[in-house]
Specification:
This protein is of the alpha+beta class. The protein is 50% helix and 10% strand. The longest helix has 22 residues.
Length: 265
């Protein structure tokens, strides 16, 4: 008998909205401080420069306002836990849109100011149940905002990696939501109950086919910190490298997560 689909985790809508606004504010402040030389630096995202990465963050957040401007679909089509796997199909479109946006907005400060103003204005009275016509599929505003925490946290880390000393802070609620969504997406991609993946203090999930433990310490345990997990889940960090550097502890014959990573392309 096929295993029942795991129930979607609930998120506090007010905390998620505050996390998105807060994290975008952190990135906005940091981007505004970058010099032309820093904006021209390479990133770990192909041949994107820091300028293009910064433009992409604004584009990812602007999807909220842009989607609210569109006609509301009849019903949601994309479940929150299906979103991580749905993003890979849009990689080429995202790349093209990012390059065009960066070229069209040499003044990133103005772009970020406009994006922040529109976001705050559109979120002021939009209910979380409002259905949005996003490019990955119709989903509720509440769910879409959770996906924006992933975009913001992941790319905050990308910016910090690209510019030594930038040190953009990460909102705790944004980090928590990002960690939990990607952990739950692993349980969808590798269903089962033989392995326990722990990402303290935010997430614990059961995954991978095999004998299910019912009490005591699980025979297969993986544990890591939130940022390491996010890097693994998004392909920024290789599983073998994380083990070699002791960034992950993994015990048990089914504790190898490499066949299931990354979660997002």
């Amino acid at each position: 008998m096929p295993q029942a689909r795991k129930r979607t985790r609930s998120y506090d809508p007010a905390k998620i909205r505050a996390a998105v606004l807060g994290q975008f504010g952190h990135v906005r402040q940091a981007v505004g401080s970058l010099t032309p030389e820093q904006l021209a630096r390479p990133t770990r995202l192909g041949d994107w420069t820091v300028r293009e990465l910064a433009a992409h963050v604004a584009m990812a957040v602007e999807t909220v306002s842009r989607s609210l401007d569109r006609e509301e679909p009849a019903r949601p089509e994309l479940a929150l836990l299906d979103w991580p796997a749905a993003t890979a199909a849009r990689a080429a479109d995202i790349d093209d849109g990012t390059r065009r946006l960066a070229a069209a907005h040499p003044d990133l400060g103005a772009l970020y100011a406009e994006t922040a103003e529109r976001l705050a204005h559109r979120l002021a009275d939009a209910p979380g149940s409002r259905v949005l016509a996003t490019r990955t599929g119709a989903m509720t505003l509440a769910d879409h905002l959770v996906t924006r925490t992933v975009e913001l946290v992941v790319h905050t880390d990308d910016l910090n990696a690209a510019v030594p000393g930038l040190d953009i802070p990460v909102e705790r609620q944004a980090l928590a939501a990002c960690t939990r969504l990607l952990a739950d997406a692993l349980a969808v991609k590798a269903p089962g109950g033989s392995t326990e993946v722990r990402v303290p203090p935010f997430a614990v999930v059961q995954c991978v086919e095999g004998p299910r433990h019912t009490r005591g310490t699980p025979p297969n345990v993986v544990e890591t910190d939130p940022l390491t997990w996010i890097r693994l889940a998004t392909g920024r960090l290789d599983w073998a490298q994380a083990l070699r550097d002791a960034q992950v502890s993994a015990g048990g014959e089914r504790a190898d997560l490499s066949p299931h990573l990354p979660i997002m392309g």
